[in-house]
Amino acid sequence: MRRNRVPPERHFLNLLDRLTRDRRNVVFIVSSRKIKTLVEDFGTIQELGWEECIAPWRCSIAAEHGYFYRWNSRMDWTLMVRGVDLSFQPRVLATLTSYVNRTNGSWIETRGSSVVWWVHTPSFSMRRHYEDCDPEWGTLQASQLIHDIDALRLPVSILSSSGFIEIGPQFVTKARLVSNLVNALRQQRFPCPSKTQPNRRPADFVLCFGDDRSDEDMFAYLQQMSERCVSNVITCTVGVRPSSAHHYVRSPDEFFTLLTQLADNWWMAQAWSLALDLYCSMKNKGGA
Predict the structure, then answer these.
(1) What is the CB neighbour count within 10 angstroms for residue 106?
(2) Residues in a beta bridge with 70
(3) Phi, psi for 67 (deg, rounded to 5)
(4) Do the Cβ atoms of 59 and 49 come closer than 8 Å?
């Protein structure tokens, strides 16, 4: 069963396209969504992959909190962890079905690694709007559902967020995905470890945005990483709320404004670099 879904705004896709065209940038989209949805929503970006001369990706996508990921559109999807125990799904589905029967407007989404009980409809514009479910009744039922899932004593993690509850396998987290990404970048950028510089940095600068509770472990991991292997790490929530992130923007509009400024500055720096190269080339020719 599929509900109406708001796709990414065209402005956001244009910003991603601009950022990925800069060879110095690596853009990674980490979502809880299914592969099919992400391919539909982000497939319009011209190039999802870092330049071949530097690394095999430039903008990568991860689905279901990183359970599935791929480095670019020319590569296959990879499992974060192989042999994950998904035997919990039938028992969880039976419990969720009973809640759907008594909570009008709620529905179940089955993903490759998890099961989700929705009481509100999600939006990629980071705005939520209500389904037919009464908000107060949905909140009450969500609290009881978490208690009932805990009582099953299954090896699962429970994510409760705005409008949904997701039950998935343990150890599949965005923090683990980021750890894999950092290791891959380090190996790609510095394939031969140096005895004089054993801890060379995989990136000069990391900027991480998130608007969901599932992003918190990623924020916490990046803050720890900033102390070890990256000099500049900025974690930022979209919306004001308690968070492990050190910064916030108040709204999706502020988020888009900030991304626009970043894209403009990168393109301006690129233009100045090209102009300088051209000037030096013409000067050298004139001197010859």
Answers:
(1) 25
(2) 61
(3) -60, -40
(4) yes
Radius of gyration in angstroms for the set of CA atoms belonging to the chain, rounded to a whole number: 22
The model's pLDDT over 199-235, given as tens digits with 9 standing for 90+, comes to 555 677 888 999 988 899 999 999 887 666 666 888 9
Strands 156-161, 164-169: pairing kind: antiparallel
pLDDT digits (tens, 9 = 90+) for 54-69: 344 456 899 999 999 9
Q: Work out whether strand 232-238 and strand 129-130 pair parallel, antiparallel, or are unpaired.
A: unpaired
CB 164 within 8 A of CB 139: no
The dihedral built from the CA positions of residue 58, 272, 12 and 162, taken in this order, carries a sign that is: positive
Q: What is the fold, at CATH topology level, of the domain defined by 89-169?
A: Hypothetical Protein Ta0175; Chain: A, domain 2 (3.90.1070)
- Edge-to-edge order in the sheet of strand 68-70: 27-30, 59-63, 68-70, 78-79
CA dist 29 to 32, 33, 232, 273, Å? Answer: 10, 11, 20, 28
Q: Find all residues with CB under 8 Å of 112, minimum gap 6, and list them.
A: 34, 35, 63, 64, 67, 68
Instruction: Count how many Cα atoms sit within 13 Å of the Cα of residue 197 in the half-sphere of its side chain.
Output: 8
